[in-house]
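dumping this here so i dont lose it
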C-alpha cells in the first residue's frame, strides 16, 4: 500500500509539473502527407523519374507489340504455315514473352528503388525545412503526422511548404 501511495504521488507530481510548464512550450504540427503532395520537389522528382525510365518503358512497349504481332501472325496463318515455321514462331514468341516479363519485373524493381531514393532526398529536405521554420519561429516541439487532432494555430505545414518553395 505504501508503494502505491508513492507511485500515485509521483505521477501527480509529474502531471503537475508538466501542466505548470506546458504554458511556456510552443508547439507546432506538420502534415507530412500534405507536404508530400504539394511540395514542388515532389513534382520535380516525378518528372525526373519519368524521364529516366521512359526509354525502358518504350522498349517494353516495343517488345509487347512484337509479341502481339507474332501472335496475330500465328492466329492468321498458323494453319497454313509449315510445322517448323509455326514452331519457330511459337518459340520466338515464348522467348520474347520471357524476356518481356523479366524486363518488366526489373523495371518495376528499379523504379521502386529510385522512388525510395528520391523520397529519402525529399524527406531530408522536409526535415531541414521543418527545422529552419521551427528555429526561426521559436518552436519548442514540432510533431509530424500520427496526431489524432491538431488545432490550426499549431499547424505550420504551410510555412514549411513556403520554405520548400511553394506558395
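and the seq i came up w/
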Amino acid at each position: 500500500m505504501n508503494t502505491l501511495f508513492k507511485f500515485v504521488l509521483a505521477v501527480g507530481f509529474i502531471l503537475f509539473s508538466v501542466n505548470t510548464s506546458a504554458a511556456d512550450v510552443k508547439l507546432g504540427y506538420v502534415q507530412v502527407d500534405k507536404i508530400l503532395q504539394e511540395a514542388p520537389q515532389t513534382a520535380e522528382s516525378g518528372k525526373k523519374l519519368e524521364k529516366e525510365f521512359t526509354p525502358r518503358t518504350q522498349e517494353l512497349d516495343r517488345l509487347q507489340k512484337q509479341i502481339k504481332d507474332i501472335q496475330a501472325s500465328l492466329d492468321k496463318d498458323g494453319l497454313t504455315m509449315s510445322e517448323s515455321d509455326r514452331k519457330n514462331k511459337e518459340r520466338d514468341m515464348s522467348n520474347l514473352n520471357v524476356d518481356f516479363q523479366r524486363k518488366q519485373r526489373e523495371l518495376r524493381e528499379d523504379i521502386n528503388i529510385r522512388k525510395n531514393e528520391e523520397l529519402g532526398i525529399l524527406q531530408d529536405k522536409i526535415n531541414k525545412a521543418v527545422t529552419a521554420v521551427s528555429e526561426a519561429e521559436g518552436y519548442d516541439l514540432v510533431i509530424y503526422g500520427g496526431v489524432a487532432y491538431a488545432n490550426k494555430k499549431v499547424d505550420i505545414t504551410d510555412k514549411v511548404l513556403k520554405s520548400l518553395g511553394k506558395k
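Confidence is low (pLDDT under 50) at residues 4-13.
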